Amino acid sequence: MKKSLIVFALLAVAGRPVLCQTTPKPMDTKATEAKSDPIDTDRGNFTNGPGIVPKGSYQIETGYTLARINGAHSQALGEVLFRIPLTPVSEFRVGLNSYQSITGDGNSAHGFQDISLGYKRRLIEQKGSGGFGPPAVAINFSATLPTGSEVFTEKMVQPSALLILSRDITEKFSLGANLGYGWLSSGGQHFSQFIASTSGQFKINAKTSAFLEYIGFLPGGYRGSNASFIDTGIFYLVSDAIQLDARIGKGFSGASPDDFGGFGISFRWH
Description:
Blueprint: H1 2-11, E1 58-69, E2 72-87, E3 90-104, E4 107-112, E5 116-124, E6 136-144, E7 158-168, E8 173-186, E9 189-203, E10 208-218, E11 227-239, E12 242-251, E13 259-269
């Protein structure tokens, strides 16, 4: 069960796993954003984009994930990320995360995940209006705090860092990638974890986009094997300030979930 807890924790927040979430959608890299621009979230897919919540606005992102691995089932409800702009190119992030339930092999575990605090900053804007070229670049620093339920919490701070790259290739197609490192813990045992993800997003129409993504964790947990999986999903803009998302995915290594899926909703207000 303990190994399942580690892997499920990576997925339960999809956008905000141990190394903190999220999405290259839409990949707007302007240093300032008009309040009428569509909401830009870090959830739905795992790969974060460089977008920053506009000054004078606030944003909350929430969701649900169901996953299965080796006969065990996990449900995570909440996946809450609260994003507060600090400057036109930076924001403070509070991950309240989820209430999680895991059942399998005659065992069960229920409770809250650790909360996380983070700081995201866009460093470089995209150069040029399209095609292959220098990407937009951002960084995200985060750390979990030992605040969760006994079965899910770690008794120490877990820091991580994420390098975010993105590029609008055309008006309808964009690419994003994340490279990250976390100094994590499992049952009090420290270990290093590296992460790599890449996501392609295609704009179907003015309100709907779809993505296809690969994610890898090296390793998937303490003294565990590597975990890798692919997922796909859609984003739908209800309005400029409300976005819905849905996704499904499948693992293809020993430490990865057999399959998973989820959905979410995000809001921005002034």
